[in-house]
Write a structure and sequence with these properties.
228 residues, Immunoglobulin-like, five-stranded antiparallel β-sheet, 1 helix, mainly beta
């Protein structure tokens, strides 16, 4: 049986195109565009909702915004809860503006959502994870993925019927040593994945896995980095 370790690309969040962010959407689990929720220009990524190897286990849309106090992310998916279910995990590189990679690049032996997932060009400092819309999503520091620690003061919620979840993380928790000041030029990189049980890989990734150039949800057989 071939064991896949997905190497994932990342979205760079650093004043992305068209954004005029300064917004505080409701963290009620429902990702919607409206006066009291998300703005249209906070729509970060439209991922294909039919490119998962396991059919409906897809990431669909990703929204991102912030205000002076908090960072917000909202994710729409394509699979309603039920059956065995699957998990959704968000990896965030909080210092993508640095020349060197400082966060975790391999989650094979993590103590929170251990999966055969590795990164190229980023290191995850925060991880968000939840299983099949059954309980609120957790947020943890993960620079050492074998010893993750819960992030203080975050808020998360989900809506099983809408197949979506939202998370708010205070800047003071993202940058606890910054004395409540986010460094000028600070950038985040984000990867969102749907996953199976422990020690599986990614069913879908947004942005797509670098091992799935044709976007069919299956690692490319011609990829020399995949071990038999």
């Amino acid at each position: 049986m071939r064991r896949y370790a997905f190497v994932l690309f990342a979205i760079l969040v650093a004043g992305y195109a068209g954004a005029t962010t300064y917004n505080s959407p409701q963290i009620d689990g429902t990702v919607s565009v409206g006066p009291s929720d998300w703005d249209e220009d906070e729509f970060l990524l439209d991922d294909a909702n039919d490119d998962s190897r396991y059919h409906e286990a897809d990431i669909d849309d990703i929204y991102v915004t912030w205000d002076s106090t908090n960072f917000y992310i909202g994710v729409k998916t394509n699979l309603a809860p039920g059956g065995y279910g699957n998990g959704y995990v968000v990896f965030i590189d909080t210092d993508a503006h640095l020349a060197s990679i400082t966060g975790a690049t391999d989650f094979t032996n993590a103590n929170f959502y251990p999966r055969h997932i590795t990164f190229s060009g980023m290191g995850a400092d925060l991880v968000i994870g939840g299983w099949s819309f059954q309980s609120p999503f957790d947020v943890r520091y993960c620079s050492d993925p074998t010893r993750t620690q819960r992030v203080p003061a975050f808020v998360s919620n989900f809506n099983p019927g809408m197949r979506s979840f939202e998370v708010m993380i205070p800047w003071a928790s993202i940058y606890p040593d910054a004395e409540n000041v986010v460094a000028e030029g600070a950038s985040l990189k984000i990867v969102v994945v749907s996953v199976g049980g422990d020690n599986s890989g990614a069913y879908d990734a947004a942005p797509n896995s670098s091992h799935d150039a044709d976007g069919d949800g299956i690692p490319d057989e011609s990829d020399p980095d995949l071990a038999p």
